[in-house]
Amino acid sequence: MNKRRFNFVQFLLNNSTVFLFIIIFILFGLSSPRTEAGFPRFWSPENMMNIIKQAAVFAGIIGVGMTFVLLTAGIDLSVGSNMYLSVVVAGLLMRSSGLEIVPALLVSLLVGTLFGALNAFAIVRLKIIPFMTTLATLVIGRGLGTAFTSSQQIDFPERMNAFGQTMVLGVIPMPIVVFVLVVIAAWFILARTQFGRQVYAVGNDIEAAKKAGINTDRTLAMVYIISGFCAGLAGFILASQLGGRVDRSFGETREFDAIAAAVLGGTSLFGGAGNVFGTVLGAVLIQMVGTGLQFNLVNLYLQPMVRAFIIFLAIFFDSLREANLKKMKRRFIRPLEVHRADAGD
Amino acid sequence: MTPLIEVHELSKAFFGIAAVKSVSLSLNVGETLGLIGQNGAGKSTLMNLIGGVVHPDTGTMRFKDAPYAPHTPSDAQTAGIAFIHQELNLFTNLSIAENIFISQFPRKGLLRSIDRGAIRQQTRDLLASVGLDLDPDIQVDRISPGERQLVEIAKALYQDAALIILDEPTTSLTARETERLFTIMGQLRSGGKALIYISHILHDVHHLSDHIAVMRDGALVAHDPAANFSVNRMISLMVGRSIEQLYPPRTSTPTTDVALSVKNVTTAGIVENISFDLHRGEVLGLFGLMGSGRTELARMIFGADAYDSGTILVEGEPIKKPSPRASIRSKIAFVTENRREEGLLMGIDIANNISLVSLPDFARTLFDVVNQSEMLDSARAMANVLQLKSGDIAEQPAKALSGGNQQKVVIAKWLLSRPSIFIMDEPTRGIDVGAKYEIYSIIDRLAAEGSGVLIISSELEELIGMCDRILVMSRGELYGEFPRAEFHEERVLRAAFREQDLPVLPVQEPSSAPAGKEEV
Fold first, then answer.
1. B501 pLDDT band (50/70/90 cuts)?
2. How many other CB atoms are found less than 10 A from the CB of residue B180?
3. Segment B145-156 mean pLDDT
4. What is the C-alpha to C-alpha distance for residues A12 and A35, in angstroms, rounded to an integer?
């Protein structure tokens, strides 16, 4: 009897993010304004589609990149600045030399990737710890972006807006399709390729990875480059969603949501554990909270605090889970039945 | 026949201190070399030279009849030398199959994805050849230490290693797992593999090896067929003098004052109704097979783990809210089983390790500022008392010490807080013979000065050599008590086994390493 309750608690904790997700989904639905037919607007398909779309551009795509980095026990604080810098370069070229959408996207990807390579160089070659490296490039990236734009807002040509409104097959918003492709590619890389499995190995024990003949420098460099690529991609897509207007605060604090999405999804900050599907769940959860708060007309200034609180809650559950798991893994020496029979006397 | 590996006058010094002095060795195909020596004798350095981890100052090596000078561990691996370290190098978050193929996966298709079918099949075959019946997809953190050891060997077989070096492979294995490992080693040998086996369990070395090499102070002091060695001779070669006794004589007798009293301590599924007294001046042994609940009980007494019911009294005073802090206040010291993870801050200097528990005593001034010079003086004094062999204790990190000296640091840390009760869990595990003797002498001195000492050990001989009384634990219960006059190896073991299925013990030489091996 005792044992079953234990397992139930563990089951709840094991899936705490999923349960949190369901509870928040239901609560926001019940408290949201209704349609004339009495259906909660929060649960409408349009709103759901909207939440997923925003999750993709705000936290999802960079969250996937962040997952690679966290798996090696690293961190990339520069993704928000990288999003800004990448899209600024692409936008300036679009305006000055009339670059089309696809080449502009490639420019944004290239800048993002190079920026990731800069992080990789500092971390792997100069041996500066990831936290300090990416904290520095966070400032450098934003600084370069404001310098290129003289701190002015960039207005993209109209085709950027049109690109953002593209519907694939007539019904699915473009950012969702991009997100799905990124997630599938990331899953494939992590679960099915040599590089992906080596990422997990490096995160588990980097010394052992070196002894096993894994090129750990290359593996570490690659995860920051991938994170940079994702930032370049996310920056461009996000700009298209904002109607092609990019101001100096574009992408700010995105790194927080990206890290939160990955950690909510079960990725460990200590490396070696996690996967991209968890990150998708985390990103959608974060966005759902944001949208739900707007639906319920929560004071604009309170919203970030409520969001931070819910993220805190999820991570708190995660640490409870770890503690409980440790307790469960305790070795039992004596059969518990014996004791129960004693207690029944 | 040319030997598989030849080491010729190999020397290596670290910062001017010779670790390996002009060592020459050779090993043939299908032979096992037992390598023994005290901690710090140079065994590890010699193996690291062969394994490409460090590079020799002078001397040459030949492997497979060709010059051999590895620059990195992967060079050694490619050449056909597998080095199975004491701390295993498996990735616990990956599957067995992934661990075996991690450096080079077979790949297929346009996307160069891992050929999972192929690695699964090959892994299944490799596991079968080391006698493991496990699913290749199972994650390594779900298999036992013994199984992990065999997975390491499977990995060496996959790399087609001609020489396999095993460094203390049995320390974390049960008797059954050890037996299986030895069987596999026998098969490898008949299959033409050369093995180098390093262990402190001299009986195993004697039993498994064709030749035995003894190192002392970096030099090779003997290299003969195993038949020319007795365990006694191995010990005297290692220490360089003959140890008549492995245990110092006890210089005191226990008093009748109760220092620690454990009453009816019970935790569901772990320990059941444990009651005993530890007296001042007494060395009390707690023997039990692995998994009998010894360590768990010790942790409960120290307050590191909770217990469901029962009382623990120190000098008649019950400990109300058990925690390590409460125990330290009650003057209990706990030398844990695991120096590396629980006993020491490995990267921190020795002095700070020694003063860790009694740090508040050195911080009596405003804002709790630590009086550095007072702290250092006390740590130095304690290091002197215990004859710690180290460099400057304010500079040298704990990890730079040998196992025996690390254990002395742990003991020094507790001594500084002047405890009256010592709980020592496996105080001499992985420590060489000479250092063991010193630890035993310290234990005797503690008892003579009036402390109560509780020693937990799976080496029955050690308990018989040192204790005034032995308690036997079995399946979480106390299952026997033996005063010194009634010490009898077989009877104690029978109690631990509950008189069931007592295995026939090999006849041991008087002063060999452990007697009763653990069994789950």
1. very low
2. 19
3. 86
4. 33
Q: Distance (Å) from the C-alpha of residue A230 to the closest C-alpha of chain B?
A: 20
Sole residue written with tokens 């992408």: A251
- Verify whether the Cβ–Cβ distance B268 to A212 is below 8 Å: no
Report chain A residues whose CB lies below 8 A from the CB of B293: 333-334
| Minimal C-alpha gap between A178 and chain B (Å) | 20
**pLDDT tens track for B221-277:** 999 999 998 877 887 787 765 545 678 888 888 999 999 999 999 998 888 899 999
Phi, psi of B133 (to 5 degrees): -110, 75
Number of Cβ pairs closer than 8 Å across A and B? 86
What residues in B contact A273, CB-CB < 8 Å?
93
Q: What is the complex's ipTM, to 2 decimals?
A: 0.83
| H-helix or E-strand spanning residue A313 | helix A303-328
Spell out which residues of chain A touch residue B116, defining contact as CB-CB under 8 Å: 192
Q: What is the pLDDT of residues B47-67, one digit of tens each?
A: 989 988 889 999 999 999 999
On the question of pLDDT at A335 being above 60, the answer is no
Strands (E), chain A: 154-155, 167-168, 172-173, 245-246
Q: What is the pLDDT of residue A334?
A: 61
Which runs of E-coded beta strand occur in B58-115?
Answer: 58-63, 66-67, 81-84, 107-108, 113-114
Higher pLDDT, B41 or B506: B41
User: Among A331, A334, A337, A345, which would you mutate to test the B interface (most chain B Cβ atoms within 10 Å of its Cβ)?
Assistant: A334
pLDDT at residue B509, rounded to an integer: 39
Q: Per DSSP, which regions of A159-291 are E strands?
A: 167-168, 172-173, 245-246
Query: CA B513 → CA B123, B390, B510, distances in Å?
Result: 36, 26, 9
**How far is B259 from A226, CA to CA, in rounded Å?**
62
String of DSSP letters for B300-334: HHHTSS--SEEEEEETTEEPSS--HHHHHHTTEEE
For residues A227 and B184, which has the higher predicted lDDT (pLDDT)? A227
User: Are B90 and A208 in contact (CB < 8 Å)?
Assistant: yes
- Taking 60 as the threshold, does the pLDDT of residue A306 lie above it? yes
The average confidence (pLDDT) of chain B is 85
Q: Does B290 touch chain A (CB under 8 A)?
A: no
Residue of chain A whose Cα is closest to the Cα of B108? A193
Nearest residue, CB atoms, B114 vs list A194, A272, A332: A194
Minimal Cβ distance to A200: which of B94, B103, B477? B94
